[in-house]
Design brief:
The chain is an alpha+beta fold. The protein has a single domain, classed as Muramoyl-pentapeptide Carboxypeptidase, domain 2, CATH 3.30.1380.10. It contains 9 helices and 16 strands. The strands form 4 sheets. Strands 5, 7, 8, 9, 10 and 11 form a 6-stranded mixed sheet that branches. β12 and β13 form a beta hairpin. The longest helix is centred in the middle third of the chain and has 16 residues. The radius of gyration is 20 Å and the shape is globular. The structure holds zinc ion. The site of zinc ion (ZN) has 5 residues, from β8.
């Protein structure tokens, strides 16, 4: 079960029950990160608002999807595949975060540094498919995942280490501050290369690996940091750092040449009561809209995902055909 998205197919299962079922069935290799506080976070629960913005109001989207205005819990803005995290927009550490060990769940198409590299389960699925396809089209087994999820404490350690080695100014320029690293989301991997003879090298996304950097969007991944976007992201070229945003968003970002900072703004051009973003991708059609705040129009049925942008609202992605 994926508790950061809610899918309805006929029978509605309350998110709390989904979480309980997921916990009961948590196999080895999974990690549930808990922070202080209580109650399940990272979930989008549909409870009527006590007054406020016309909760329960019904409306149809342009393509005729019946929706209901639903008051989501506060954490909804800070949960989901489309979170923007940088040194200005910090990650809101949820009370619980479901992660999986890449080592336990990976295919034989690549390596991972050790058993302690964790990512979110849908990101691992997408990573497996991408690197299986890379191998199938002739790629070598040399990709080594050297980083995934990072705790706030580990990012603090990296930052302090950089300050000690190169001074604070250098650290502030090159190392994300604790809370400012995308790695906190569990939606990020860093690649390195590992050769049969035991040597390793930095991953540059060139040569045979250009296939990965050129096709990752088809698997829901984007090359997050490119030189040209440094003024917006604050981070220089990092061809080894991949961010999972899901489909079809990765394809739209790539086609339009938008980094996540730009894409977050772009999606706001599609409010529920305005024109929606329609995307044909992979033989399927998606309708996408943005809702400011935590009151969001959600489809009454069908296959859809909900993600906060970590700034000010919610993005709904609905499969319509
Ligand atoms: Zn990275």
């Amino acid at each position: 079960m994926k508790h950061w998205e809610r899918r309805r197919r006929g029978v509605f299962i309350p998110p709390v029950l989904i979480l309980l079922l997921a916990l009961a069935a948590l196999p080895a290799g999974y990690l549930l990160i808990r922070s202080a506080g209580s109650g399940p976070a990272g979930m989008v629960s549909a409870t009527p608002a006590p007054g406020g913005d016309r909760p329960g109001e019904h409306a149809l989207t342009a393509s005729g999807i019946p929706c209901t205005l639903t008051q989501l819990e506060e954490g909804a803005v800070h949960t989901g595949d489309l979170l923007l995290v940088n040194n200005q927009i910090l990650y809101h550490f949820p009370e619980e975060q479901l992660l999986t060990s890449i080592y336990e769940g990976k295919t034989g198409s690549y390596y991972v540094r050790d058993k302690e590299v964790y990512i979110a389960p849908p990101a691992l699925e997408a990573l497996n498919r991408m690197l299986d396809d890379f191998r199938a089209q002739g790629g070598s087994k040399t990709v080594n995942v050297v980083a995934g999820y990072r705790t706030e404490a580990f990012q603090q350690h990296l930052f302090d280490q950089s300050v000690a080695r190169n001074g604070r100014e250098h650290a502030e320029e090159f190392v994300a501050q604790p809370g400012g690293s995308e790695h906190h989301t569990g939606l990020v991997v860093d690649f390195s290369l590992f050769y049969e003879d035991g040597t390793s090298a930095e991953y540059q996304g060139t040569g045979e690996y250009a296939w990965i950097n050129g096709n990752c969007q088809n698997y829901g991944w984007v090359v997050r940091y490119k030189k040209a976007k440094e003024p917006l992201t604050g981070i220089g070229d990092e061809p080894w750092h991949f961010r999972y945003v899901g489909v079809p968003h990765a394809a739209v970002m790539t086609e339009k040449g938008l980094c996540l900072e730009e894409y977050t703004d772009y999606l706001k051009e599609f409010p529920f009561d305005g024109q929606h973003l329609a995307v044909d991708w992979g033989g399927e059609r998606f309708e996408i809209w943005y809702c400011a705040g935590t009151a969001a129009y959600l489809p009454d049925s069908g296959d859809y995902t909900v993600s906060g942008n970590n700034v000010d609202g919610i993005v709904v992605t609905c499969k319509i055909g």
